[in-house]
Design goal:
Elements lengths: L1 H17 L5 H54 L12 E3 L8 E3 L3 E7 L8 E16 L39 E5 L6 E5 L22 E12 L5 E5 L7 E4 L2 E10 L4 E2 L9 E11 L13 E3 L2 E3 L7 E9 L8
Length: 330
């Protein structure tokens, strides 16, 4: 009987010991180890997440720059198309900056501009070209007489330059710039439609007479600039649809012009007919800063130099574009 009681007491004691929980010290040690492990896991996850985010932003920045460079290159390759046969100075607000300039209708440059609405220290560029989609030959009875102001009149039955269109391609408001080209390509005249009746008003006047068989086309005046928000924008005065964003997050835009002598200039406005190529420098950045990163580089572009020293990742894209049409008549 005593042995049975002793066994029962021993069993109760063992059962009590097996039902005991962790001590406070054991809990604290376990929690500390868990926090260390979780901190290491979170740090690894955060590092990988940051790397993924910045790589995604870098790819977006590169695609942004490539797309903008493609559009700009296409326009530059057509600079002077048709208008290279016009060797006259035409007074116009070529760069949409509020003042008129006497220039030959090829390209017009703004060097390190510092004006309201334009990102300070960036270049602007105006490209003039014939519109390849809206043109036709003058028909019998149509003519344009050399002269100034309203004495240079062309009769356009419906102002439509492409077949099958009923909307005028030339008017005296939004689509008022055109080009007259001799059919033997010996000369051309850039002009502006002056009134609804068909008067054309090239400052300085038409220098040639135009008759049936000669070409009339709408002219494009394409302006590139970086606005104060850092967006590369494009506007065509030929259709006056306003500025449209080509690329975002652009820190700088610079142009250098290679002349027929091989030398370079930052402002070819005195004689744009000598330009044979344009060097384009476009500095873009990511949309957001990178934690713990500071840009150490200095970016040199034409006659500009930028040392940001902030947390954005950047890429400088450079391209040399030959102006295929400028200089054909030089």
């Amino acid at each position: 009987m005593a042995r049975r009681r002793l066994a029962t007491v021993r069993d109760l004691h063992m059962k009590k010991r097996t039902q005991q929980g962790f001590t406070l010290v054991e809990l604290l040690v376990a929690m500390a180890l868990a926090m260390v492990i979780m901190a290491a896991i979170f740090k690894t996850f955060k590092s990988q997440q940051d790397s993924y985010i910045i790589q995604d932003q870098v790819v977006a920045m590169q695609q942004n720059l490539r797309g903008a460079m493609y559009v700009l290159t296409k326009d530059l390759q057509l600079a002077g198309h048709g208008v290279n046969f016009d060797r006259n100075q035409r007074t116009l607000n070529w760069d949409d900056r509020g003042a008129t300039e006497a220039a030959r209708p090829l390209i017009y440059a703004g060097d390190n501009v510092s004006e309201t609405g334009i990102l300070s220290g960036t270049d602007t560029l105006t490209i003039v070209k014939a519109n390849r989609d809206f043109w036709r030959e003058l028909t019998p009875g149509e003519s344009a007489t050399a002269g100034t102001g309203s004495s240079a009149v062309i009769s356009l039955a419906n102002r439509c330059l492409d077949s099958g269109n009923t909307t005028p391609d030339l008017n005296d408001s939004t689509k008022k710039y055109g080009l007259l080209i001799k059919n033997d390509l010996r000369a051309a005249d850039f002009f502006e439609v002056n009134s609804a009746s068909g008067d054309i008003n090239p400052p300085g006047g038409l220098t040639n007479n135009y008759t049936a068989g000669d070409i009339i086309t709408r002219a494009d005046i394409v302006i590139y600039r970086v606005n104060s928000s850092g967006d590369l924008v494009r506007k065509n005065l030929g259709n006056d649809l306003g500025y449209q964003t080509i690329a975002e997050n652009i820190d700088n835009l610079q142009f250098s012009y290679v002349l027929n002598s091989g030398s370079e200039t930052n402002n070819p406005n005195t004689n744009p007919g000598l330009v044979r190529a344009v060097k384009v420098f476009m500095l873009g950045r990511t949309a957001h800063t990178h934690r713990g990163f500071k840009d150490p580089d200095t970016y040199t572009m034409a006659n500009a130099s930028v040392s940001p020293g902030d947390g954005y990742r950047r890429k400088l894209m450079c391209s040399t574009v030959k102006t295929r049409n400028i200089g054909l008549t030089e």
